[in-house]
Structure formats: C-alpha cells, structure tokens
Specification:
The chain contains four helices and no strands. It has helices at residues 3-32, 36-39, 51-76, 90-102.
Length: 104
C-alpha cells in the first residue's frame, strides 16, 4: 500500500472513532438528562385521591358516630361540605379522619 492509501485509511478510522464517541456521548446525555420518574421507576407517585374515595371514608366514619367531628374537620379545611374542600387537602383530611378512629 502506498503512503496516501495508508493515510486515507487512518483518516477514515479516525472519523469512525469520532462518530462512535459522539454516539456514546449522546447516549450518556440522554441517560443522565432523563426525568427522575423514568430514571427511577421505584419512586412511583402516590395515586391522586378522588372526591368519591374521600367521601366513602367520611361516610363510613360518620356511620361510626363521628359526624360532628367530620363537620369540624371540613370547617378546618374551609368548607361546609366535602365538595368545598380543595382536592390538594384530601390526603391531610383523610389523615385527620383516621385519627378520629384512634382517638376513642
């Protein structure tokens, strides 16, 4: 082989190596810039509580004789009835309601 042919092969190998390094860098960038939810599926989000779910718990507790306490808790969260409670407060409301069962 001539020196020019050797040089052309070396240049081609360098270009292939550079392309491989670029591909590896792109892959790494995608892996480390992924959203935390996709990067760590073990940290699943807590399912969002729905009005119906909270209502079912409140009805059950009311049947157990905690109607007055439930009304007081609703007022604590700024509402006269459950539909007036901000859905962001459902989890905290349920924790308070669960405490009623243990307060006896």
């Amino acid at each position: 082989m001539s020196k020019m042919s050797d040089m052309a092969m070396t240049i081609e190998e360098l270009r292939n190596a550079a392309a491989a390094i670029n591909d590896a860098a792109d892959w790494l960038a995608k892996q480390f810039s992924a959203e935390p939810e996709t990067a760590e599926p073990a940290l699943a989000k807590e399912p969002e509580l729905k009005l119906e779910d909270v209502r079912a718990v409140l009805v059950d507790m009311s049947r157990k004789g905690h109607t007055a306490e439930i009304r007081a808790l609703l007022q604590k969260y700024g509402a006269a009835k459950l539909s007036g409670v901000d859905p962001a407060n459902y989890s905290a409301l349920l924790k308070d309601v669960e405490g009623l069962d243990h307060a006896e």
